[in-house]
Design a protein that fits this description.
This protein is an alpha+beta fold and 277 residues long. It is 44% helix and 18% strand. The protein has eleven helices and ten strands. Strands 3, 4, 5, 6, 7 and 8 form a six-stranded mixed β-sheet that branches. A two-stranded parallel sheet has the order 1-2. A two-stranded antiparallel ribbon has the order 9-10. Helix 7 runs parallel beside helix 9 and helix 10 packs antiparallel against helix 11.
Length: 277
């Protein structure tokens, strides 16, 4: 927590307010931060309600035109805000901007895999397989929340995946191709390790997106295909563990998604691409 706060306080861009949401910690956060840091922040304690509620609380309390997030495990490079605000001033059509990342796992720098490659522009399709946007890397214009809503508190994990899908279905995204944050992971209390089968929660996000009537046809088809892919993965896992009730649950999702694809006004050409009638 202290290192994360210090990485904000040391930013070269200084026109910001820093709100620290303490989501029910038991480590005497205020004492650890110390009186000098506390003078420079707005500290808010709430019972442990999860990352969605914590981020939403920060959004509600913030007063600026732009909102950024920083998870307590992560760090900002000193010029993170400066470079993002410069980029957004140069290209004001963008309402959301994110950056490349440096990864540290168990204390060692590691290279992201090819599937984690980041993209700029209309990136909804690239966001379907997994979450490629880190909350700690983004800056979002306040108007975006009025249009797409906030983080879903019903999702204990993959809440960011759900949020980015909703945003990227409506807005193009600016990528700064420089690693301006450091993501640290590998510790045993990460939420991603607390819950088995994170695709269960990604599936909920995908099903919400598949219901949207204004989603372009090709994106709707891709969303349904991703529902099928993730359901197949979960069904295989249930089969290996002899969880036949859950297996049948995911098999039903597969058949439902396939039926919805067949009922959409499209046909498949000989090269396998989707064309609209």
């Amino acid at each position: 927590m202290v290192e994360a706060v210090d990485s904000v306080l040391s930013q070269t861009y200084s026109d910001y307010e820093l709100i620290v949401i303490d989501d029910g910690s038991t480590d005497n956060t205020l004492e650890i931060l110390g009186p000098e840091r506390v003078k420079k922040i707005k500290y808010v304690y709430q019972p442990n309600l999860g990352p969605s509620v914590a981020r939403n609380t920060g959004i509600y309390l913030s007063r600026g035109e732009w909102v950024a997030f920083l998870d307590s495990d992560d760090l900002w490079e000193r010029k993170k805000l400066e470079k993002q605000m410069d980029a957004l001033q140069q290209e004001p059509e963008f309402k959301i901007c994110y950056t490349e990342e440096k990864w540290i796992r168990n204390g060692k720098f590691v290279n992201p895999r090819k599937k984690h490659a980041k993209h700029s522009g209309w990136i909804y399709l690239q966001c379907l397989p997994l979450c490629i946007i880190s909350p700690s890397s983004v800056i979002i214009h306040r108007s975006v929340f009025s249009r797409v809503g906030y983080f879903d508190p019903r999702l204990p994990v993959a809440e960011d995946y759900d949020f980015w899908l909703r945003i990227c279905s409506i807005y193009p995204v600016k990528l700064i191709r420089k690693p301006l944050i450091i993501k640290r992971g590998g510790h045993p209390d990460q939420l991603s390790k607390k819950y088995w089968g994170i695709d269960r929660f990604r599936l909920q996000a995908l099903e919400k997106m598949a219901k949207k009537t204004k989603l372009p046809l090709s994106w709707k088809i891709a969303t349904l295909k991703e529902i099928i892919r993730k359901s197949e993965i979960l069904a295989r896992g249930c089969s290996k563990r002899g969880k036949w009730k859950q297996y049948n649950f995911y098999r039903q999702k597969i058949e439902t998604a396939k039926t919805k694809i067949r009922l959409l006004p499209h046909y498949i050409d000989t090269n396998g691409g989707v064309k609209v009638k």
